[in-house]
């Protein structure tokens, strides 16, 4: 009797385990993502494309980049929404597009501390051949700064929900403080919760 019970238990466990398996498949990273009204990959791509296109065609920026590649850095994008949004991912995408346009060069301020530690190690550890060590003071200063905000307004009514996102980005001259360019991208998303049983 005990053996039959054990066999039945093992069979039931294997059936349950089989039912719990997950099928994973690859999708198109550029496809429209619309699982929820929350900020998603499609929103990120739309924002990056809009901002880069606006910046590169703005007359002042066209003039700035006509004969040289100005150096800029990206400041932290402030997330003013109620959601946890990786704003660094947005700025990384924008930075990649701008670099690949061949119009700008960037300094990475997120790596400044790591580079300073490496310079200190090369100079003061006694382990690095000084003939091959990097000399301090050779970094190129940024001329422009990119910074901005991501904000949202959420409205709920019954089983309907509406969220409005606004992303603002500006290019500022570090020497003069003048804002040379600014743009914003607006996104509105709506969702309707289905009623159980309908």
From TrEMBL:
Q: Which Pfam families match?
A: LpoB
Among its keywords, does the record have Signal? yes
Q: Superkingdom of this entry's organism? A: Bacteria
> Could you tell me the Gene Ontology terms of the biological process aspect for this record?
peptidoglycan biosynthetic process
Which residues constitute the signal peptide according to the record? Answer: 1-20
* GO CC, alphabetical: periplasmic side of cell outer membrane
Q: Which InterPro entries match?
A: LpoB
In its UniProt record, a GO molecular function of this protein is: enzyme regulator activity
| UniProt KW keywords | Signal
Q: What is this protein called?
A: Penicillin-binding protein activator LpoB
| Organism in which the protein naturally occurs | Acinetobacter piscicola
Q: What is the lineage of its organism?
A: Bacteria, Pseudomonadati, Pseudomonadota, Gammaproteobacteria, Moraxellales
């Amino acid at each position: 009797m005990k053996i039959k019970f054990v066999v039945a238990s093992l069979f039931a466990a294997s059936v349950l385990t089989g039912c719990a398996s997950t099928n994973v498949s690859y999708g198109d990273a550029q496809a429209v993502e619309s699982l929820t009204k929350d900020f998603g990959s499609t929103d990120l791509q739309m924002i990056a494309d809009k901002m880069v296109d606006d910046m590169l065609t703005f007359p002042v920026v066209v003039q700035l980049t006509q004969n040289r590649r100005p150096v800029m850095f990206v400041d932290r994008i402030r997330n003013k929404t109620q959601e946890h949004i990786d704003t660094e991912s947005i700025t990384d995408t924008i930075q990649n597009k701008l670099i690949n346009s061949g119009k700008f060069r960037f300094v990475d301020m997120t790596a400044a501390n790591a580079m300073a530690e490496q310079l200190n190690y090369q100079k003061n550890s006694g382990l690095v051949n000084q003939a091959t060590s990097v000399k301090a003071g050779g970094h190129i200063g940024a001329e422009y700064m990119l910074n901005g905000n991501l904000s949202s307004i959420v409205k709920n009514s019954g089983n309907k929900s509406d969220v409005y996102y606004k992303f603002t980005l500006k290019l500022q001259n570090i020497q003069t403080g003048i804002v040379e360019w600014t743009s914003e991208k607006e996104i509105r998303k709506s969702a309707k919760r289905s009623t159980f049983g309908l």
